[in-house]
Amino acid sequence: MNQNTQFQSLSDRVIREDECRKLTGVCRTTRYELEKKGRFPSRLNLGGRSVGWLLSEVMEWVKSRDRINSGKAV
């Protein structure tokens, strides 16, 4: 497995609520509202009441927020 493939497989793992909150700094309710508006990655139904998100999609969202915030005047 080359380095690029290894990184991709690590970043495509499913993360759960607690880790998603820690990575984004956004509470569950706000994330769900953003998701409804198409502004946050969609949840994956893991069965029953369990949901998760692809780490790669969440990290891309975090990076996009960084780009938006770095473009604003302080």
From TrEMBL:
InterPro entries the record matches: AlpA
Lineage: superkingdom: Bacteria
UniProt xrefs under Gene3D superfamilies: 1.10.238.160
Pfam families: Phage_AlpA
This protein's name: AlpA family phage regulatory protein
Source organism: Escherichia coli
